[in-house]
Amino acid sequence: MKKLLLFVSILILAAFTALCTAAAEDAVSSATLSVNALPQVQENENASVLVVYFSTDDTIRAAALTAADALSADVFEIVPTEPYTADDLNYNKTGTRATVEQRDSGARPGIAVLPESLEQYGTILLGYPIWWGQAPKIIYTFLESVDVSGKTIIPFCTSASSSVGSSDTNLHALADDTVNWLPAKRISNRETAEGIRAWALSMDLPVKEESHLLYIKIGDVALTSTLTDNSSAAALVDLLRQGDVTIDMHDYGNFEKVGELPVTLPTNDEDISTEAGDLILYLGHRFVIYYDHNSWDFTRLGKINDVMQAELKAILGEGDVTVVLSLEE
Ligand SMILES: Cc1cc2nc3c(=O)[nH]c(=O)nc-3n(C[C@H](O)[C@H](O)[C@H](O)COP(=O)(O)O)c2cc1C
Fold this sequence. Notes:
Radius of gyration: 27 Å
Bound molecules: flavin mononucleotide
CATH class of the largest domain: Alpha Beta
Distance between the termini: 65 Å
CATH topology of the largest domain: Rossmann fold
Oligomer: single chain
């Protein structure tokens, strides 16, 4: 049996060595995913998906960040305590660090920092480059160092030419059997960002909707408001993504402050009886803050959170007022 395993290993090594000079050079030079064009991934306190990855030459990093962006997931990079040098990774030389580690079943390269807690995440996408047909041993260190019990883990890997092989199933023994392991996805070094996004979204994981919180700043006071789920509020968000909007508002009818938006937004008019705190779009280009009752056919944009009528009136004050609409606190 041992002889057979040795023979199979030699075959894999021989096949990879034949391919790797050309293929891995290609991997670095022509990977379609570029770190320069990566989306910025924000930490998101409500994310239920975490993308964990280890990368030495940015291919998996690009795939991981693209998938995380598509899923509004959090990201954790496994950073080795001792970084891998180009020489450490040189598979054409015998005795280099990565090759030695991959051959040593007990090798557990150190990780600089571990995540404080994985509690909030139900699903972990675990990304690694294929090294000699397997996941790098630092992935083993990771799985043995954190509590992943009860989670769904979806491994994904990039490689020059190898398939997933046993690289994913060999990880199963490193976590307890409450983990729901899904089959790994192999991503070609040449995959496009669109391809990664399509794969990430095809898994039907819980995607966290972007929360639409609008800040209305009046002097030193910042009121938060929850936006309505319609095309008018979405267009307002698009406008505010380009920058804050300042509106000079005046009283009208003893029940509202109203001012002009710089652009006309799509309307979704309906018969509305207003309450204090309602944010309304009138005629597509007037932004209205209601502090009293009115009934009309206009578009709901949102509602100011947690404010009583008297308090709102006091904040808005008598007469003209300048308000700044913003997506940031
Ligand atoms: C030490 C080492 C071993 C590798 N072994 C394989 C292999 O067995 N099969 C393969 O197709 N690619 C192999 N590769 C290529 C990498 O899997 C591939 O380029 C990967 O996308 C690199 O990801 P990264 O840029 O995020 O580190 C190896 C690369 C290194 C550095």
